[in-house]
Amino acid sequence: MNWDAEVDVVVVGGGGGGLVAALTAAEAGLEVALFEKTEFLLGNTAASAGMIPACNTRFQKSLEIDDSIETMTQDILKKNHFESDPKQVSALANVSGPLVEWLNDSLKIEMSVVTEFKYPGHSNFRMHAPPSRSGLELMRLLKRNALNHENLYILYQSDLEEILLDEAGEVLGISINTPDGLQLIRGRKVILATNGFGGNTKMVQEYIPEIADALYFGYEANTGKGIEAGKNIGAATTHLTAYQGHAAVNENTGLLVTWGTIMMGGFYINIEGNRFGNEAHGYSEFAKEVLNQPEQYGYIIYDEEIHNQLLTIEDYKQLTEMEAFKKADSIETLAELIEVDVKNLANTFGKFSNQTDGTADEFDRTSFAKKLTNPLYAIKVCPALFHTQGGLQINEQAQVLTAEGTPFQHLYAVGGCATGVSGKQAYGYMSGNGLLAAMGFGRIAGLHAVNQLEQIKRGI
Ligand SMILES: Cc1cc2nc3c(=O)[nH]c(=O)nc-3n(C[C@H](O)[C@H](O)[C@H](O)COP(=O)(O)OP(=O)(O)OC[C@H]3O[C@@H](n4cnc5c(N)ncnc54)[C@H](O)[C@@H]3O)c2cc1C
After folding, report:
1. Are residues 236 and 336 in the same domain?
2. Pick from 73, 269, 379, 404: CA 20 to 30 A from residue 106's CA?
3. 257 and 208 both lie in a single domain
4. Is residue 260 a contact partner of residue 303, using CB atoms and an 8 Å limit?
């Protein structure tokens, strides 16, 4: 083949997973080329809350949080009804602590534990995030690190075409559409980090029709190209029905409303003022439930104490600046302000207020962190698809597998491009699984590639 360029590692996709993989390989001195379809290094990662779940970190230890790889593995598996590969879940739990400490120590991205609230299914406080709790900050700092490496080349407006193989079926590199035309790039290792197919309406309708009506709140460029290119060379795919939904996007501002509003003691109503499900199961599966309600949107009701505690979260602070919510001194006035039936909402509020923490209500919700007190808040929210969680089947080293289950020695997939650890359905998504699978497998793939190339160099 007539190669246009040859490098040690080719990374396709410049989101969180791609940048972590690229930085890991570049830090070890390898020549890395990262190809990004758009003009920016943003991806879904920049839209995220930047919260990475990790256990056994020194940040947890300094707060006397007693977490373990086993507890984190079990939490993820319980949430996905044990549908995901336990070896992969355990590999991610294993790498999570070192990953967060590497981000902090080596890349100088300040990390701290989010202690305001626990997400559904998390036994411990284990979300780690930059100070603003914003994925945009995370991506800005990852990019700053990437630009400091002379051996890491970033090429924008480059859209993956194909994965190239030799006659024996081993991966040699990629072909990619660049502003200079189609280029053939030789990579001794190729890492796919192109996320899933949330931005591809046809694929969403085909694989996940239940969420096809919802707003897509992820990165438009994520159209499933990495998955398609993998399939074309005989890679296996699994769990294409899995996705991260979210029931709480404020469409007027285009901002995410943190599920902390619920976990700290709030509740979700439809436009008739009625609750209709167990919000505490998780925001992902609740998205589908909201789509079954009249007009397909609703409101989260919470109070000022919760509001004040959430002001540490960048998106929430912005919602406050934009006055995205209504506030009132009684539930009746709040109902009038949001034009919901006063009697219904007062009745719902009365019932909800009578619940005791630990005792199941009519929807089987048992966690009621506090009694809501005046002044009360209401924010309008709608369901959305954030990203898809099924993709190319990989092993615990993030190597892509063939339909027969054997790994392609030189091909990895990380993040939304690979099968994640969220099982087969929306209910399997536990908060943090997205960045964990992207950055955790990004780190694993990067380290594995470095290790293998070093072994080849030493003739092992
Ligand atoms: C609003 C929101 C909030 C979220 N909050 C969290 C959170 O707090 N914690 C968490 O764990 N998860 C969260 N998630 C999920 C998380 O953002 C994703 O799972 C994660 O960012 C995926 O990372 P990635 O690197 O796989 O993909 P991305 O960050 O989406 O990066 C993929 C990149 O690949 C590029 N690309 C696509 N196709 C091609 C192609 N053909 N050729 C070249 N490049 C291509 C894209 O342009 C993009 O830059 C959130 C998601 C959303 C939408």
Report:
1. no
2. 73
3. no
4. no
Residue 58 belongs to domain with CATH number: 3.50.50.60
Q: Which residues line ligand 1 (CB under 6 A)?
A: 12-18, 35-38, 43-45, 47-51, 158-160, 193-195, 217-219, 221-222, 225, 244, 256, 386-387, 415-416, 432, 434-436, 438
End-to-end CA distance of the chain: 27
Same domain, residue pair 371 and 432? no
What's the pLDDT score for residue 119? 85
Mean per-residue pLDDT over the chain, rounded? 95
Name the band, by pLDDT with cuts 50, 70 and 90, for residue 245.
very high
Calpha distance 401→413 (Å, rounded): 10
> How many domains does one find in the chain?
2
From residue 231, how far is each of 184, 392, 410, 413, 426 by CA, in Å?
Answer: 19, 8, 16, 12, 23
Residue 423's nearest CA partner among 433, 412, 436, 438 is 433
pLDDT in tens, 252-283: 999 999 999 999 999 999 999 999 999 998 89
Q: Which of 103, 126, 127, 194 to mutate to test the pocket of ligand 1 (most atoms within 8 A of CB)?
A: 194
- Both 312 and 437 in one domain: the answer is no
In a shared domain, residues 51 and 191: yes
Which range marks the domain in which residue 236 is found?
A: 5-242+389-457
The pLDDT of 224-233, averaged and rounded, is 98
